[in-house]
Amino acid sequence: MDMRELREKIDQIDDEIAALYVKRMQTVRDIVEAKREGGIGISDPGRERAILQRLTAAHDPIYEGDLKLLYALLFDLSRSAQARLMRPDAEPFAEVLDQAVAATPVLFPKSALVACQGAEGAYSQEACDVMFNVPGILYFNSFEGVFQAVEKGMCRYGVLPLENSLAGSVTDVYDLMKAHRFFIARSAKLRIEHRLLAAPGAKLSEIREVVAHEQALRQCGKFLSGLKDVKLTPFANNATAARFVAESGRSDIAAIASARNAQLYGLAPLDERIMDDGSNYTRFICISREMEVYPGANRISLMAELPHTPGSLYRAVARFAVRGLNLMKLESRPIPGRDFEFMFYFDFEGSVVDQDVKGLLSDLSQSGGFTFLGNYSEV
Fold it and tell me: Cα–Cα distance between 370 and 372 in angstroms, integer?
């Protein structure tokens, strides 16, 4: 057979596969009716396992892995379809997205009451100033305080650091995401410029302790390793570290913080180039209690709790690939209190007004385990 004939044969087989897939999904509708009448749940792991055993035993063992992968995806699609059919009166997630888009104002607000962690001069406050023209800011001692302030309606928005180009993700924020209800309304990327600040008249050779947020300490690791007999003390925030140095009355202590903190707290820079890499950026998110999707939103974040089974992550990622959606970030975090179980965070390019994106999100909402975090733009 020549190439043309072989391709025609493949086309014929593909047509048969597509027709059989449609026939299988049509049969799923009948299965849903039977399950509803019998009070049977959607998931049936025993049945799925039996199908895989039967099919792999009936064919050449060389295809066993391929068949397991193919049918794992088919089972996933079947469960999603059954979930939609079992709850026909449930509000489709696509409608929830449409309502959020319709209810969101055309312009992001210029002013609002915003929760930030730390104190005046914190990088979160600088990011807040980037997102809003004239924000009112309430400061909290912890990231959890920011989440709670938004969740309880104390502040309309909260600004939190999410990831740094040098030190990686702010894991405390990721871990808190699972415990709180919120949506991301906007994000901002802020250039970070660390300086070593101390009381006026202090000398670098006299410094015996450096205080800063643990990420700042990591970002300046090479410089700090060159200091002799210096204790490194983590603080919740660089701004609070700078304020502590200013109020300590000591000349042997310094803080890693921004130039703004030197002005705010009357400190003097001992060294202005202490970062391991001059290309240092932190990404901040602005969270809200209600879903807000402003015009031009082009980035979507999801949180997923996937089963600890082979292929579960692949099947999740495949849903993006088949719709031509570009994943920008995929990160995993252990679920506190649960051994070897992980939460995954997805960022991808897209808008909820796009039908492919809306279809994906609707399917994910039915399959369970996924949480929509927001559709937003970055400034």
Answer: 7
Please count the CA atoms within 13 angstroms of the CA of 342 that sit on its side-chain side: 11
Looking at residue 206, what DSSP letter applies? G
Strands of 64-204, DSSP E: 113-117, 136-140, 157-164, 168-169, 183-191, 195-198
What structural domains and CATH numbers belong to the chain? Answer: 3-86 (1.20.59.10), 93-191+281-376 (3.40.190.10), 195-271 (3.40.190.10)
Helix (H, G, I), strand (E, B) or coil at 372: strand
> How far is Cα 82 from Cα 104, in angstroms, rounded to an integer?
32
pLDDT digits (tens, 9 = 90+) for 95-132: 889 999 999 999 999 999 999 998 889 999 999 999 99
Residue 238: is its pLDDT beyond 90? yes
Provide, for the chain, the percentages of residues in helix, strand and coil under a 3-state DSSP scheme, each rounded to the nearest 5. 45, 25, 30
At 325, list the tokens.
């959606």
Residues 298, 377 contacting (CB under 8 angstroms): yes
Judged on CB neighbours under 10 Å (0-12, 13-18, 19+), 379 is middle
Q: Which of 256, 258, 269 is nearest to 120 (CA)?
A: 258
- Which among 75, 93, 140, 284 is annotated as catalytic? 284
Residue 61: DSSP 8-state: G
> Considering only CA atoms, which of 112, 210, 200 is closest in space to residue 159?
112
Tell me if residue 377 falls in helix, strand or coil.
coil
Q: What is the pLDDT of the chain when averaged over all its residues?
A: 89
Active-site hit among 75, 108, 235, 282: 282
What string of DSSP letters covers 176-194? HHTTS--EEEEEEEEE---
Q: Is the predicted pLDDT of residue 314 greater than 90, yes or no?
A: no
282 belongs to the catalytic site: yes
